[in-house]
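We modelled the chain as a single entity of 97 amino acids. Its sequence is:
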Amino acid sequence: MISSPDNDNSPDEPMVFIIIAKAYEVEGGEGIDLHVMLAAPDDDTAVRLALNALSEEGFLEADLDQIGMITGAPDEEPHASAYQGALEGEVAIIRFN
């Protein structure tokens, strides 16, 4: 019996997602543009993990605008560090003020 099949359905590296969002620290306040980067097995899990991380950081509400997968390591900061952190199991939140 084969325990780990070798096919194209199993990526060699974890799937790293980027979620573009606007989050709110105070009710009725102005939203903060964010990028959230994290590794997850699927997009539903990525959304759940991102919302949990935003809640832990004190955000009351978030509008998730787009979700996508990153296919290679970004060259520029802060996304390059966030990508590395995601590969290590962190949820990286990049704020744009």
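As a brief sanity check on the tokenised model: DSSP finds two helices and four strands in the chain. Confidence is low (pLDDT under 50) at residues 1-5.
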